[in-house]
Write a structure and sequence with these properties.
This is Putative glutamine ABC transporter permease protein GlnM. The model has no long low-confidence stretch (mean pLDDT about 90). The chain is an all-alpha fold and about 230 residues long. Helix 1 runs antiparallel to helix 7 and helix 3 packs across helix 5. It is flat, with a radius of gyration of 21 Å.
Protein backbone atom coordinates (compact mmCIF):
# COMPACT_ATOMS: atom_id res chain seq x y z
CA UNK A 1 0.00 0.00 0.00
CA UNK A 2 1.33 3.42 -0.93
CA UNK A 3 2.38 5.61 1.99
CA UNK A 4 0.56 8.90 2.19
CA UNK A 5 2.78 11.95 2.42
CA UNK A 6 0.95 15.19 3.20
CA UNK A 7 4.22 16.97 3.96
CA UNK A 8 4.85 17.44 0.24
CA UNK A 9 1.87 19.79 0.16
CA UNK A 10 2.82 21.84 3.20
CA UNK A 11 5.80 23.54 1.55
CA UNK A 12 7.47 23.91 -1.80
CA UNK A 13 6.13 24.29 -5.31
CA UNK A 14 3.01 22.14 -4.96
CA UNK A 15 2.02 23.96 -1.79
CA UNK A 16 2.28 27.27 -3.67
CA UNK A 17 0.10 25.91 -6.48
CA UNK A 18 -2.63 24.85 -4.08
CA UNK A 19 -2.54 28.00 -1.98
CA UNK A 20 -2.72 30.17 -5.11
CA UNK A 21 -5.71 28.10 -6.25
CA UNK A 22 -7.43 28.54 -2.89
CA UNK A 23 -6.85 32.29 -2.94
CA UNK A 24 -8.18 32.55 -6.50
CA UNK A 25 -11.30 30.60 -5.52
CA UNK A 26 -11.88 33.03 -2.66
CA UNK A 27 -11.36 35.98 -5.01
CA UNK A 28 -13.89 34.54 -7.48
CA UNK A 29 -16.44 34.19 -4.69
CA UNK A 30 -15.89 37.70 -3.33
CA UNK A 31 -15.98 39.41 -6.73
CA UNK A 32 -19.11 37.48 -7.64
CA UNK A 33 -20.82 38.59 -4.41
CA UNK A 34 -19.94 42.22 -5.03
CA UNK A 35 -21.78 42.17 -8.36
CA UNK A 36 -24.43 39.50 -7.74
CA UNK A 37 -26.07 41.03 -4.66
CA UNK A 38 -26.91 44.42 -6.26
CA UNK A 39 -28.07 42.68 -9.44
CA UNK A 40 -30.26 40.34 -7.38
CA UNK A 41 -31.81 43.33 -5.61
CA UNK A 42 -32.65 44.95 -8.94
CA UNK A 43 -34.18 41.75 -10.31
CA UNK A 44 -36.19 41.16 -7.13
CA UNK A 45 -37.50 44.72 -7.22
CA UNK A 46 -38.50 44.36 -10.87
CA UNK A 47 -40.36 41.16 -10.00
CA UNK A 48 -42.61 43.27 -7.78
CA UNK A 49 -42.91 46.27 -10.09
CA UNK A 50 -46.40 47.52 -10.98
CA UNK A 51 -45.61 47.23 -14.69
CA UNK A 52 -46.13 43.89 -16.42
CA UNK A 53 -43.26 44.49 -18.87
CA UNK A 54 -40.72 44.93 -16.07
CA UNK A 55 -42.05 41.90 -14.23
CA UNK A 56 -41.84 39.90 -17.46
CA UNK A 57 -38.21 40.88 -18.01
CA UNK A 58 -37.27 39.86 -14.47
CA UNK A 59 -39.18 36.57 -14.62
CA UNK A 60 -37.62 35.72 -17.98
CA UNK A 61 -34.14 36.37 -16.62
CA UNK A 62 -34.62 34.24 -13.51
CA UNK A 63 -36.19 31.30 -15.33
CA UNK A 64 -33.71 31.40 -18.21
CA UNK A 65 -30.70 31.45 -15.91
CA UNK A 66 -31.59 29.07 -13.09
CA UNK A 67 -32.99 26.35 -15.35
CA UNK A 68 -29.66 25.95 -17.16
CA UNK A 69 -26.74 24.19 -15.38
CA UNK A 70 -23.89 26.42 -14.27
CA UNK A 71 -21.51 24.29 -16.34
CA UNK A 72 -23.40 25.29 -19.48
CA UNK A 73 -23.16 28.97 -18.50
CA UNK A 74 -19.41 28.66 -17.99
CA UNK A 75 -18.89 27.02 -21.37
CA UNK A 76 -21.17 29.48 -23.16
CA UNK A 77 -19.43 32.61 -21.86
CA UNK A 78 -15.97 31.24 -22.56
CA UNK A 79 -16.46 29.44 -25.87
CA UNK A 80 -19.76 30.74 -27.25
CA UNK A 81 -20.15 34.44 -26.49
CA UNK A 82 -16.74 35.53 -27.94
CA UNK A 83 -17.77 34.12 -31.33
CA UNK A 84 -20.02 37.15 -31.78
CA UNK A 85 -17.04 39.50 -31.39
CA UNK A 86 -14.53 40.62 -34.04
CA UNK A 87 -11.55 38.31 -34.35
CA UNK A 88 -9.11 40.88 -33.00
CA UNK A 89 -11.13 41.47 -29.84
CA UNK A 90 -11.61 37.75 -29.34
CA UNK A 91 -7.87 37.08 -29.56
CA UNK A 92 -7.17 39.94 -27.15
CA UNK A 93 -9.61 38.50 -24.61
CA UNK A 94 -8.09 35.03 -24.79
CA UNK A 95 -4.63 36.57 -24.35
CA UNK A 96 -5.71 38.50 -21.23
CA UNK A 97 -7.09 35.89 -18.83
CA UNK A 98 -10.60 35.75 -20.26
CA UNK A 99 -11.06 32.46 -18.40
CA UNK A 100 -11.45 34.22 -15.06
CA UNK A 101 -13.68 36.93 -16.53
CA UNK A 102 -15.94 34.31 -18.11
CA UNK A 103 -16.18 32.47 -14.81
CA UNK A 104 -17.14 35.67 -12.97
CA UNK A 105 -19.79 36.56 -15.55
CA UNK A 106 -21.34 33.10 -15.34
CA UNK A 107 -21.20 33.01 -11.55
CA UNK A 108 -22.67 36.51 -11.18
CA UNK A 109 -25.61 35.86 -13.49
CA UNK A 110 -26.27 32.41 -12.01
CA UNK A 111 -25.96 33.45 -8.36
CA UNK A 112 -28.01 36.63 -8.81
CA UNK A 113 -30.93 34.62 -10.23
CA UNK A 114 -31.14 32.49 -7.08
CA UNK A 115 -30.47 35.35 -4.70
CA UNK A 116 -33.19 37.46 -6.30
CA UNK A 117 -35.78 34.88 -5.31
CA UNK A 118 -34.60 34.97 -1.69
CA UNK A 119 -34.71 38.76 -1.70
CA UNK A 120 -38.17 38.73 -3.26
CA UNK A 121 -39.39 36.41 -0.51
CA UNK A 122 -38.07 38.87 2.05
CA UNK A 123 -39.77 41.78 0.29
CA UNK A 124 -43.08 39.92 0.18
CA UNK A 125 -42.88 39.30 3.93
CA UNK A 126 -43.33 43.03 4.56
CA UNK A 127 -47.01 44.01 5.00
CA UNK A 128 -48.57 45.76 2.02
CA UNK A 129 -49.50 48.64 4.28
CA UNK A 130 -45.83 49.65 4.33
CA UNK A 131 -45.88 50.21 0.58
CA UNK A 132 -49.11 52.17 0.87
CA UNK A 133 -47.60 54.28 3.64
CA UNK A 134 -44.59 55.11 1.48
CA UNK A 135 -46.78 56.08 -1.45
CA UNK A 136 -48.88 58.23 0.88
CA UNK A 137 -45.73 60.14 1.81
CA UNK A 138 -45.24 60.95 -1.87
CA UNK A 139 -42.55 58.37 -2.66
CA UNK A 140 -42.60 56.58 -6.00
CA UNK A 141 -42.41 52.79 -6.23
CA UNK A 142 -38.59 52.61 -6.45
CA UNK A 143 -38.09 55.17 -3.67
CA UNK A 144 -40.52 53.32 -1.40
CA UNK A 145 -38.71 50.04 -2.05
CA UNK A 146 -35.34 51.66 -1.37
CA UNK A 147 -36.24 53.59 1.79
CA UNK A 148 -39.07 51.59 3.35
CA UNK A 149 -39.36 48.00 2.15
CA UNK A 150 -35.76 46.89 1.55
CA UNK A 151 -34.40 47.98 4.97
CA UNK A 152 -37.19 46.12 6.77
CA UNK A 153 -36.72 42.96 4.75
CA UNK A 154 -32.99 42.63 5.46
CA UNK A 155 -33.43 40.66 8.68
CA UNK A 156 -35.26 37.82 6.93
CA UNK A 157 -33.25 38.10 3.72
CA UNK A 158 -29.69 37.90 5.01
CA UNK A 159 -29.76 34.26 6.31
CA UNK A 160 -30.83 32.73 2.95
CA UNK A 161 -28.33 34.99 1.16
CA UNK A 162 -25.58 33.59 3.36
CA UNK A 163 -26.72 30.10 2.36
CA UNK A 164 -26.51 31.14 -1.29
CA UNK A 165 -22.99 32.39 -0.58
CA UNK A 166 -22.14 28.88 0.61
CA UNK A 167 -23.49 27.48 -2.66
CA UNK A 168 -21.48 30.09 -4.57
CA UNK A 169 -18.29 29.07 -2.79
CA UNK A 170 -18.78 25.46 -3.88
CA UNK A 171 -19.77 26.51 -7.40
CA UNK A 172 -16.42 28.23 -7.95
CA UNK A 173 -14.95 24.75 -8.46
CA UNK A 174 -16.79 24.48 -11.80
CA UNK A 175 -14.53 27.21 -13.20
CA UNK A 176 -11.84 24.56 -13.66
CA UNK A 177 -13.59 23.33 -16.83
CA UNK A 178 -12.60 26.51 -18.68
CA UNK A 179 -9.04 26.54 -17.35
CA UNK A 180 -9.36 28.91 -14.40
CA UNK A 181 -6.51 28.02 -12.04
CA UNK A 182 -8.69 27.83 -8.93
CA UNK A 183 -8.39 25.26 -6.16
CA UNK A 184 -9.75 22.19 -7.95
CA UNK A 185 -7.74 22.98 -11.08
CA UNK A 186 -4.53 23.26 -9.07
CA UNK A 187 -5.31 20.08 -7.14
CA UNK A 188 -5.68 18.25 -10.44
CA UNK A 189 -2.41 19.74 -11.66
CA UNK A 190 -0.62 18.52 -8.54
CA UNK A 191 -2.16 15.07 -8.92
CA UNK A 192 -1.05 14.89 -12.56
CA UNK A 193 2.50 15.91 -11.65
CA UNK A 194 2.97 13.73 -8.57
CA UNK A 195 0.39 10.92 -8.95
CA UNK A 196 -0.57 11.74 -5.37
CA UNK A 197 -4.34 11.97 -5.76
CA UNK A 198 -5.20 11.48 -2.11
CA UNK A 199 -2.89 14.19 -0.85
CA UNK A 200 -3.76 16.79 -3.47
CA UNK A 201 -7.52 16.36 -3.25
CA UNK A 202 -7.38 16.08 0.54
CA UNK A 203 -5.84 19.56 0.56
CA UNK A 204 -8.59 20.83 -1.76
CA UNK A 205 -11.28 19.23 0.39
CA UNK A 206 -9.83 20.80 3.53
CA UNK A 207 -9.80 24.19 1.80
CA UNK A 208 -13.46 23.96 0.80
CA UNK A 209 -14.48 22.75 4.25
CA UNK A 210 -12.50 25.50 6.00
CA UNK A 211 -14.10 28.34 4.04
CA UNK A 212 -17.55 26.69 4.25
CA UNK A 213 -17.26 26.54 8.03
CA UNK A 214 -16.33 30.22 8.13
CA UNK A 215 -19.44 31.06 6.09
CA UNK A 216 -21.54 28.84 8.35
CA UNK A 217 -20.11 30.56 11.43
CA UNK A 218 -21.04 33.97 10.01
CA UNK A 219 -24.58 32.72 9.39
CA UNK A 220 -24.84 31.30 12.90
CA UNK A 221 -23.56 34.46 14.56
CA UNK A 222 -25.92 36.61 12.51
CA UNK A 223 -28.94 34.53 13.44
CA UNK A 224 -27.93 34.61 17.10
CA UNK A 225 -27.53 38.39 16.95
CA UNK A 226 -30.68 39.02 14.88
CA UNK A 227 -33.13 36.16 15.54
CA UNK A 228 -36.22 36.02 13.35
CA UNK A 229 -39.26 36.15 15.60
CA UNK A 230 -42.70 35.21 14.43
CA UNK A 231 -45.27 37.96 14.69
Amino acid sequence: MKNFDLSMLLSGQYHEWLVSGLLLSIQLAIITLIFAVPLAMVIATLRMAPYAVLRGVAISYVEAIRNVPLLAHMLFWYFGAPEFLPEGIKEWLYDHNFEAASAVIALVLYTAAFMSEDIRSGLRSIPKEQMEAGRTLGFGFMKTMQLVILPQSLRVTVPPLINQTLNLWKNTSIAMVIGVAELMYQAQQVESSTFRGFESFAFATAGYVMVSLIIYAISYLYQQRYPIRSV
